[in-house]
C-alpha cells in the first residue's frame, strides 16, 4: 500500500528520478546510521558506552523549573510546555548516541536501510513497540505522525516535511521515505521525529488541543498528574516496552520524576537548599563557588559534580533584531558590541571565572580558526566576497577592553561606527540622519532560570555604557509566556539569547539562521538574518560527502555568523555543574557531549 501525502509539492521538487531512486540495490539493513562512516557500536552492543547497564530502578526525584506551563503538548507552537517533557514521554524511530556526532541507533525501529545516495530511507519497526496505552506502534502511526507534524505541528517540523516526496508502507512493519532534495542528513532526520498515535489525533484539532489532551507516547514515562502552571508528575511505565533493548538498557531509572515550577530562579534556589528539589544545574561559576556552601552541602547530603564536555559553546548573549532599523546596519551592531564592556561585566558578575564565547562553534573542532580564512574555507566564501560582513575573510575577533568601568577605547570605537552610519551626538543625545533620538529596549524574561547569563544584571551594566553614547536604553522585564509571544512575533530590539549547538549541525541550521526562516512566525532565526552566503554554507554542509568537507563548510558558516555581529556574546560554559542529592548517582564514564537533557536524569539512578 503506497501513500503519497505530498502530491502538491511534486511540481517544485526539481530532482530527477535518476537521483531519487539511485542506489536501491546497494542498501541493506543496519542497526545504526551515521552521517559519515560506520557507527562506532557493533550490532550486538549491550548498552550505550556512557550508561551503567546494571543501574537499579527506583526512587523519586523532583526537578525545578521557573515560570509556568499552560500546555503538555511539546509538538505544537501554541502554549508554554515544560521543556523536559518530550524527553520522557515520546520516542522516535532511532535515538542519538551522545558519544558520537551524527550517529543514530535503533529505537522504535529494529533496522534501517539507506542507499549511498541517501535518496531514500527505510525503517522496519520493532514488533514489540507499543504506546503507553498498550496499542502497537504501526507504520500507519509513523506516516500519520509525519503528516500531522508537518502540517499542524510546530514550524520546526515543517522543513523536513517539505523535503519528502512520498512516504509509503512497503511491508507490514516497514516504511520508506523518498526525498525530493539532495540532502544527506534527511535520512537521519526522518529517524529522529517523534511518533504519535493516529488513533488519538485523527480528525481532532492537534494544534489547539486543551491542556488536558496530553499526546500519547511510547516513551518510558507517562504524565500521571499535573497542577496547571505548578507541577507535573511523570511516572515510569512498569510495562514500558523498551526497557531491555540495548539503546535503553540502564536508562530512565527513577520510578517518579516531578517537575515543580517557581516564580523565579532565586525562589527555586531556596527550595533546593530546603530539600524540596533533588538536583539543579548552575551556570554561574562564581555562584557555584560562593553560594553552594549551605548546610546540606556541608553535611554531604548534597553533592557538587562537574562534567566537562567537547561540544560547541553555542551562542549566549543579547541578540539584535536586524528586521528593525537601524539594527539592520552592521556598523550600528558593531557599535553596540564595542559598547558592551565584557571584561568588566564578566569580572563583576562571575569574578572573571568564565571565558567569553568567541564564535558560534567555539570550544570545538568545528570552530573557525583565528586570522585569515584557510584555503578550504576561503574557497567556499569567495563567491560571496562582495556581500560578506567585514572581517569574514580577513579575520574577525571580538573587542577586548582593559577591564575598567569606563571602557574608553570601546566607547570611542562605538562612537566612530555610529558616526559612520550617519548618527551624531548633540546635547547628550545620539540622533540619526532624520534627527530622531536613537533608543532601544532590552527584553528580559522575569525570574528566568536562564540566569546563567545574569541577564538583568548584565543589561543594567550595559545600559550605563549606552547612556554615555547618548542612547536611551531601557529594560523590559516580562514573564516567560509574554517573552515567547514577543519572540514569535519578532517584537523586540534586543533580547537575551541562547542557542545550543552540537557537533553534528544539520538541517536545523536553516531554521536557526536560514533566509527562508527569517520572516516565518515562531522561527528560531531570532535575529532575522538573510544571507545568501549563510544559506550556501548550510547547503554545502548538508551535501558534504566527507567529514573534511563538512568541517570546512561549518567553519565557513561560523565565520559569516560571527562577523555578522548579530549577537553580543557573553560567557561560555565549558563544563556542566550539577548540585544533587547524594542519593542520585551517575556513571563514571561521561559522554562526549557531557551534561544535557539526555544525561541528567536519563542515565542517573537512585541509591541510598
SS content category: alpha+beta
Largest sheet: 5 strands, antiparallel
- Spatial extent as radius of gyration: 25 Å
Q: Which term fits the overall shape?
A: globular
Mean pLDDT across all residues, rounded?
Answer: 92
**Into which percentage range does the β-strand content fall?**
15-25%
Overview of this protein structure:
- The protein contains 18 helices and 24 strands.
- It is of the alpha+beta class and 608 residues long.
- The strands form seven sheets. A five-stranded antiparallel β-sheet has the order 1-8-9-7-6. It has a five-stranded mixed β-sheet with strand order 19-18-20-15-21.
- A hairpin with a 3-residue loop joins strand 10 (221-227) and strand 11.
- The radius of gyration is 25 Å and the shape is globular.
- It starts with a strand and ends with a strand.
Properties at a glance:
608 residues; alpha+beta; 5-stranded antiparallel β-sheet; 5-stranded mixed β-sheet; 24 strands; 20% strand; globular; disordered N terminus
Can you give me a brief rundown of this structure?
This protein is of the alpha+beta class and 608 residues long. A five-stranded antiparallel sheet has the order 1-8-9-7-6.
Write the layout of secondary structure elements.
Elements lengths: L1 E2 L13 H4 L11 E3 L25 E7 L18 H5 L4 E3 L6 E4 L2 E5 L6 E6 L13 H13 L6 H5 L1 E8 L2 E6 L6 H5 L7 H4 L19 E7 L3 E6 L19 E7 L2 H9 L5 E3 L3 H6 L4 H4 L3 E7 L6 E6 L9 H10 L2 H9 L24 H7 L26 H13 L3 E3 L2 E3 L7 E7 L9 H14 L3 E7 L1 H9 L5 E6 L8 H6 L18 H12 L3 H17 L3 E3 L5 E7 L2 E2 L19 E2 L2
Parallel strand pairs: 3-12, 18-19, 18-20
Antiparallel strand pairs: 1-8, 2-5, 4-5, 6-7, 7-9, 8-9, 10-11, 11-12, 13-22, 14-22, 15-20, 15-21, 16-17, 23-24
Helix pairs in contact: 10-13, 12-18, 17-18
